[in-house]
Amino acid sequence: MIITDEQKDVLSEWVNIAFGRAAGSLSDLLGQRIFLKAPQVIVLNLTELYSSMEAIYSGQVVMVHQNFNGGVSGDILLFFDYDSASVLIDLLCGGVGQKRRLTVSDREALVEVGNILLNAYIGSFGNLIAAKIKFGLPSLSLDHLSDLRDVLVLNPEIVRLILLVKTNFSLLAGNVTGYIGLVLEIDSVETLLSSIQNIEDMEE
Amino acid sequence: MRADQDVFSQGILAQVEYQALPQDLLDAIPFGVLITDTELKLTQVNQWITIHIGRPIHQLLGKFIGEVFPEIAERKLVQAYRLVLQSHSALTLSTRIHRYLVKMPAAPDSGLVDMPQSAVIVPVLDDNIIHGTLTYLIDVTDRVVTEIALQHEVEKLTAIREIDQALSTLNLEACLKTILSWAEKLFKTQDAALFLLEEGELQPVRFDQDSPPPVMKTCAVKWVAEFQDRLLVADTHNDPRCDGDPSALIRSEMAVPILNDGVTIGVLTVQSRQPGAFTDNDLTLMEALAARGGVAIHNARLHNELELLAATDGLTGLANRRQFDSVLKYEWTRTQRFGRPLSLILIDLDNFKKYNDAFGHPVGDNLLKNAAQCMRTQMRASDTLARYGGEEFVCVLPETDLDQACRAAERLRQAVARLHQESSLAECPIPDHPITISLGVAQYSREFIAPADLIKAADTALYDAKSRGKNRFSIFPGEDLPSS
Q: To 10 degrees, the CA torsion angle through B68, B70, B71, B75?
């Protein structure tokens, strides 16, 4: 299956809506104003992820990862380069955005941010396709980008796509860039697209 | 098994099917468990929770979680539960961001007020039908206390590194300011003071007279100077070293000696009007600051001394030849640029060789010293009097024209002529050898190309004064001017 430009636009629009909800939940639960700047959505073949991100992330990548299955299956992840992750935690805890080593408590806070964002994000997704989705447990990892790809490419025979959203977390004292990725098999992308199509048809 | 976050990641309890769990089983779990229905009313709570909040279980069950624990509702964390119900996905509430989910007192020896907790809210699902939530609540006091201690150590090391960088200066005032500003920054106080030992007396360091008076030289400061040891006074009102003065405004204080080579050269102190404002940890850090400060102060002082030595003539204490050259060069440039007058006087002690031969070198040296001292008192602060070599002296007079320079020369001549009458020269028993000087005066002219030309002009005038009988001044060019 080849995703057409038109279909990419449809996906991008949907991702934007889901994203707005995720940002709202994040501000409420963390008790401070957090703006997520209008995201750019890129649709990539998963094998392209490494080459397109390599230039950005040459060091360690901090990733909150959760898989899900049911009506659609896939993985959802939030990732930062190490320094950005540590700056974000410092900002969330009232600091001025200093870099530091991530402690166990810092990592747990990152899991929380990931949980809230990813839950809210994928929640919109579940509503959209009215399908039952079951989540695995969230996990946090510190890896290089190449290892990250290995986690996501389960079977090289199966083409998986990633909807990648570059996000700017903007807080009062500073801002940080991270990425949210939704990794889906082609079947799931088709299900998603047809669900979107159905809704649009109903609205018309 | 230790109750920590590994339990979550392994997901032992994550996929709970909804049926009431045996209470005995729940009570055996060594961390908190809260189970709610989909309306977020508590259906089960284990003993760990009831013990830590000190309330009986019947007050909790059947009630909305936000009502039983208002701290959850107040911080909008009910929304976290709603998100779990909606998304069917677990949610972590970290101690870093929320500190705790349910307010409980911390262990008394932890130094914390509330027990820090990590919580995970898990959906209770059965065949994808949601029945409610299950929350694990874990006491992470040990971890948080360790992290805080580690953070303090990291801050300490960072501070010491920055202090080292800031103190890598040979400017004494910059050193002192750095030490004080770091003491204020590290211990979050405006009341930091530095005392330096000067002639056996501790003197407060002040940078200008307009600055507010420094903090007092307290008993603690005196104690530290006397015993060369660090001191932390938690409460001045009942510390014998502070005489237990119940009226003292300063309630707590730290003071450390500033040492150089094992000798106290000063005391650094910070004070607070609150009792118990400082910890042992703070005291150790202040000691590190004082140790580095001591070395920096010593180096800056040595540097000052060396600079002075390099510019001073050892015998007379006047500027030396090198210093004179540099001053003349500077004034020369200024005169050329701004067109202001500049004059030079070259001075020679009359008959010095005879005097030296008659009375010996020590007496000759003494005469040079006294003549130098005498002439210095006649000069303005802006003038530079230097020993030019042997019994020759030179004076640079900026902003001075020939007329004013002649008056200065005459003043010098008269002062030296009176010298032998003064008691300070009692060692020079030479009533028949009056001490006199000859002087050559020259003013900057556009015809001069280099500073050496001005010196040469003054030298020519000096030669003229000598050849006309000494004890007088001449000017360049050798016109007939009224001389003494």
A: 130
List CB contacts of B403: < 8 A, sequence separation 6 or more.
none
- What is the rounded average pLDDT of the residues A192-200? 78
Q: Name residue, tokens 């490494």.
A: A50
Q: What's the confidence (pLDDT) of residue B7? A: 42
Cβ–Cβ below 8 Å for A111 and B92:
yes
Chains A & B: contacts with CB separation below 8 Å: 93
φ/ψ (deg, to 5) at B186: -65, -35
Q: What is the mean pLDDT of residues B387-410?
A: 94
Count CB-CB contacts under 10 A for residue A191: 17
Residue A137 touches chain B, beta carbons under 8 Å: yes
For A162, the 3-state DSSP assignment is strand
Distance CA B285, CA B179 (A): 12
Task: Mutation target for A interface from B89, B121, B140, B141: give the one with most A CBs within 10 A.
Answer: B89
State residue B204 phi and psi, 5-degree precision: -70, 145
Is the peptide bond between B257 and the residue preceding it cis, with omega within 30 degrees of 0?
no
Q: Are A48 and A100 in contact (CB under 8 A)?
A: no
Give residue B253's identity as a one-letter amino acid code. Answer: E
What ipTM, to 2 d.p.? 0.85
End-to-end CA distance of chain A: 27
Express each pLDDT in B312-370 by its tens digit: 998 999 999 999 999 999 999 999 999 899 999 999 999 888 888 888 888 888 889 98
Element (H, E) at B27: helix B23-28
B125, β-bridge pairs: B130
Q: Which of B160, B128, B53, B140 is nearest to B93 (CA)?
A: B140
Question: What span, in angstroms and rounded, lies between the C-alpha atoms of B91 and B250?
Answer: 49
Residue holding tokens 């001549």? B413
Give the C-alpha distances (Å, rounded to integers) separating A93 from A97, A167, B147, B436.
Answer: 9, 20, 14, 81
